[in-house]
Amino acid sequence: MSSERDHRSDGNDGTTVNGNDPTADGVTDAALERAGGTGEAIARRRGMFGANNGSDTTGYGGLTRTVRMPGASARPYGGYFDEVADELEGALEEQGLDPAHAVEKTVVDRGEITFHIAREHLLQVVRTLRDDPALRFELCLGVSGVHNPHDTGRELHAVYHLRSLTHGRLVRLEVSVPEADPHLPSVVAVYPTNDWHEREAYDFFGLVFDDHPALTRIMMPDDWQGFPQRKDYPLGGIPVEYKGAQIPAPDQRRSYS
Amino acid sequence: MTTHATRPAEPRETTEGPVYTVTGGDWDEITQAAAERADDERIVVNMGPQHPSTHGVLRLILEIDGETVTEARAGIGYLHTGIEKNLEYRTWTQGTTFVTRMDYLTPFYNEAAYCLGVEKLLGITDDVPDRASVIRVLLMEINRISSHFVAIATGGMELGATTVMIYGFRDRELCLDLFELITGLRMNHAFIRPGGLAQDLPPGAIDALREFVRQMRKNLPEYDALCSGSPVFRARLKDVGYLDLAGCLALGATGPILRSAGLPHDLRKSDPYCGYENYDFEVPTTDTCDSFGRFLLRLEEIEQSLRIIEQCMERLEPGPVMVGDKKIAWPAQLALGPDGLGNSLDHIKNIMGTSMEALIHHFKLVTEGFRVPPGQVYTAVESPKGELGVHLVSDGGTRPYRVHFRDPSFTNLQSMAAMCEGGMVADVIVAVASIDPVMGGVDR
Amino acid sequence: MGLEDKIPGGFILDTVENLAGLARKSSVFPATFGLACCAIEMMTTGAGRYDLARFGMEVFRGSPRQADLMIVAGRVSQKMAPVLRQVYDQMPNPKWVISMGVCASSGGMFNNYAIVQGVDHVVPVDIYLPGCPPRPEMLMDAILKLHAKIREEKLGINREQAAREAEEAALKALPTIELKGLLR
User: Fold this and answer.
1) Rounded to an integer, what distance in angstroms lies between the CA atom of residue A222 and that of residue B275?
2) pLDDT digits (tens), chain A, 257 positions
3) Can you give the pTM of this predicted structure?
4) What's the burial of C116, exposed, middle or buried (CB within 10 Å: 0-12/13-18/19+)?
5) Can you give the pLDDT at residue A4?
6) DSSP C178
């Protein structure tokens, strides 16, 4: 039983920094590309059983795989996505903002469209999305934080979902910020509903929403240290004792990556 | 805390001004004593987090001037459970057992939203068998009824109408009997799984459903007689908790709150899932924007849910309830064994005795789970409280990389301040009850 | 607590104990301490079908000052733990605690940063009630077992002696991991 506990004791969950050079490992990348895996590499994963300290004797320890998120899409996007993208680009141009600066990348995946927005232009983009009559995304569905510790320079992501009741559409905005400088503008001025959502994202991920009216912890006690839902924050479980046995906490168990 | 109730303790100086702490005693004397000492009559009242009328572990901080609420704030997080983080350490299938415990009054909605997301990530949305979708709709609609009954029951209890609570829980028991018959559990079912359902309807379920619909049709008019027709009940609820359409959209309020402002927005109509486009039902609305309108809407939605349940029973065709892909479908056909629980004995005999490969496959799928291609999706269902959205991120592993629930209770509760400020203290409880926040969903 | 503490041990104390136990068990006033899913089942137990009034305890008190039983129904978060303790401290003696559900009893499936791994870290527990959530019948069973316990409660010097015996037994008890169970 106790041998299970040291599988992940080196604090590394089997993924390594990708170093922005996804071609360093030719074999697996080629395999991935054969499988249609051309996306944005965010991490590299080694082995199969979450053990990196030599205790993986299965023969799969040398396996390396690149974790890739879906990459940028080319036009046409299909469906109403082209219309939304055109309108957004047109409206931003009218305001004197080069769309290429504001929208870093557009991803269409699984029938959903994601605009990757530069953080300095986020407020202007959401204001346009809400107010432009052809867009009219009246309802903001909150912000969700995502932490990719191995995606250097873009560790923290804030993901917004906007719904248009008028046109029956849904778009996703994604803003990436580095962990060292986790600032991005608050959209509470445009969508008051995001008040609590942004406090939650701050509480769990340490994303600092500038100009939020009261950015304080919302779920955790006020004096809590750290941001619990970041990947480098431990789950915090304790080993569970049974009669004659003990099993480690969920994040200390052997796992399949 | 001081026991001299009628004489406030010595004030504690803070940056906000002196703060008095008193427990018990006569309210008039306390306000008078406080007024004598302080320059103005502003008093901050803390209600909860453990208070009989706060709908769970909700903390309300009210600044009152006499009996009028001048500012209201909600303190939440007292039930934060870390479910979203826990999910990252379990397989995709095991995730259903966690999400079902988020908003514990709408377990099937949590499961359905999560499973629809996983299916979308896997790209098997269209492969889910029809029978599974119909049973999902069936369970969700019964769940809508039970959730609305709890909203009415606890709302009634908070008003002091204990009879309403007894009635609400009586009818909720009928829903729970069905759940128990179909899933084996009264709450926290984990019955909807990625790819379908854990198992098929048991024998006798259709008869029980018919009896349920019949009984509900009989019981529902009692609420009209007991509540909607009662002048006292109307007086407590009418024009209380007012929030108009602009306020709803700004604050992101959905569900009965949005529909009480007159907008017939319902994801079952505007963005159908699980085949809702094939069912015939209405989306009731009112334009009163108040608690009474929301109460009437809940009753009307129960009515509509009964209609959908009847259509579900007609649409049920024999067939599988899990996707055919054996790399995803849970291998065991669950069956009620002689010990009252467990896997199908035939299946165990097969994998243990005849097929080594089947045993390995079973073991791998249960312990390791299936891999989900990298990417992110957002799926939403119309829960009884509003739009329940799930943001799922996969990194290609056997466990979710990130799961975020956009719970309607969490977002709707924000509108509490807008509904209460300027009203009376006693109406705060009514307004909160009409939002129907479930703290398990708010705090997750 | 009162006069009974001054009664010497023996026949009189036993008689008083009997009477007090009977009186106390017949009128238990639970404080509402509903937290999560179990709270709904607790309310169900109080409502029509299961009818807790049969055992003379349907009156859930809003104020801890008026209650002598705390049913901790649901998961206790780190943020809620101080509140829970404060409510418990405000209850007058003698008082009892039922830890309802597996989350309150041991943290259950939520073995993580947010949840207190068993409410017995915060308050002493008399009855642990497993289940997720326990059925109303199970809660009633726990309540009846607690009634039996209250019925047998000692007073005065008998109480002190019982406490001493319980402490000695606890000191001698084996840790869970050294116990023989299904896994060993």
Assistant:
1) 44
2) 333 333 333 334 444 443 333 333 433 444 444 444 567 777 777 776 665 555 666 777 777 778 888 888 888 888 889 999 999 999 999 988 888 888 888 999 888 999 999 999 999 999 999 998 888 999 999 899 999 888 888 899 999 999 999 898 999 999 999 999 999 999 999 999 999 999 999 999 999 999 998 899 999 998 888 899 998 898 888 888 888 788 888 887 777 76
3) 0.88
4) buried
5) 39
6) G
pLDDT digits (tens, 9 = 90+) for A179-192: 999 999 999 999 99
| HEC per residue, chain B | CCCCCCCCCCCEEECCEEECCCCCCCHHHHHHHHHHHCCCCEEEEEECCCCCCCCCCCEEEEEEECCEEEEEEEECCCCCCCHHHHHCCCCCCCHHHHHCCCCCCCHHHHHHHHHHHHHHHHCCHHHCCHHHHHHHHHHHHHHHHHHHHHHHHHHHHHHCCHHHHHHHHHHHHHHHHHHHHHHCCCCCCCCEECCEECCCCCCCHHHHHHHHHHHHHHHHHHHHHHHHCCHHHHHHHCCCCCCCHHHHHHHCCCCHHHHHCCCCCCHHHHCCCCCHHHCCCCCCCCCCCCHHHHHHHHHHHHHHHHHHHHHHHHHCCCCCCECCCCCCCCCCCECCCCCCCCECHHHHHHHHHHCHHHHHHHHHHHHCCCCCCCEEEEEEEEECCEEEEEEEEECCCCCCCEEEEECHHHHHHCCHHHHHCCCEHHHHHHHHHHHCCCHHHHHC
Token pair 């009480």 in the structure block, residue: B260
Tell me, what's the pLDDT at A19?
38
Interface of C with B in 73-92 (CB under 8 A): 74-75, 77, 79-80, 83-84, 87
A192 reaches C (C-beta below 8 A): no
CA A202/CA C75 separation, integer angstroms: 24
- A111 vs B271: CB contact, 8 Å cut-off? no
| pLDDT for B332 beyond 80 | no
Instruction: Read off the pLDDT band of C174 (50, 70, 90).
Output: confident
Residues of chain A in contact with residue C175, where contact means CB-CB under 8 angstroms, are 241
- 3-state secondary structure (DSSP) of residue A161: strand
Q: Using alpha carbons, select from B124, B303, B282, B107 the residue that is nearest to residue B132.
A: B124
A255 chain-B contacts, CB cut-off 8 A: 89, 399
CA B82 to chain centroid, in Å, comes to 17
Cα-based distances in Å from A16 to A47, A67, A152: 11, 10, 11
Q: Which of B385, B412, B413, B374 is nearest to B113 (CA)?
A: B385
Q: Measuring CA to CA, which residue among C91, C83, C150, C149 is closest to residue C122? A: C83
User: Cβ(A226)–Cβ(B440) under 8 Å?
Assistant: no
Q: Which residues of A touch C174 (CB under 8 A)?
A: none
